[in-house]
Amino acid sequence: MSDLETMPGHLIRRLQQISVALFTHRMGEAEIDLTPVQFAALVTLRQHPGIDQQTLAGMIAYDRVTIGGVVDRLVLKGLVLRETSPADRRARVLALTDQGQDLLGEAAPLVERVQEDILGALSAPEQATFVALLSRVTASGNELSRAPLRRSKAAGYVVNS
Asked: Could you give the number of structural domains in the chain?
């Protein structure tokens, strides 16, 4: 497998570049200041209001140290409210603001179009197969990541280990 163009790792990296470019283009057209990671954080907070930053990091497979900066920017944009947890004064719990809810409502259909753009070269059955295989490969390598995906017990999931 010496041909770069047939190496899965290279192709996955290229697809990530394409995905981010499409996302950035769609958000730019709509004049929405949002990154893919910020979008993932907002979606997760809509689904699980009141989770802490550490749980958020695990649920979007993002580095725990770096998530603070992501949350800081979302707070500065007025999209997320961060408060000290009443249950644990060391933890910071997060929730979407009304502005965050509105922006997410505006961005979500654009992100759906990005997904369609990414998979547009495939037929519907091929798309389903591709996503299923990508999900399986990603899940099998989860623990190899420096930021593995974690599901929170508090959010109603079993913790992956």
From this structure: 1
Q: Hey, what are 96's tokens?
A: 């979407």
Question: Looking only at Cα atoms, what is the longest distance across the chain?
Answer: 56
Angle at 79 between CA 27 and CA 116, to 5 degrees: 30
Helix (H, G, I), strand (E, B) or coil at 2: coil
The whole model's pTM is what? Answer: 0.87
* CATH assignment of the domain containing 114: 1.10.10.10
Question: Is residue 151 situated within a structural domain?
Answer: no
Segment holding 134, helix H or strand E: helix 124-140
Reported as a single tens digit per residue, the pLDDT across 103-137 is 999 999 999 999 999 999 999 999 999 999 999 99
Range of the domain at 10: 4-144
Is 155 part of any domain?
no
- 32 with 103: CB under 8 angstroms? yes
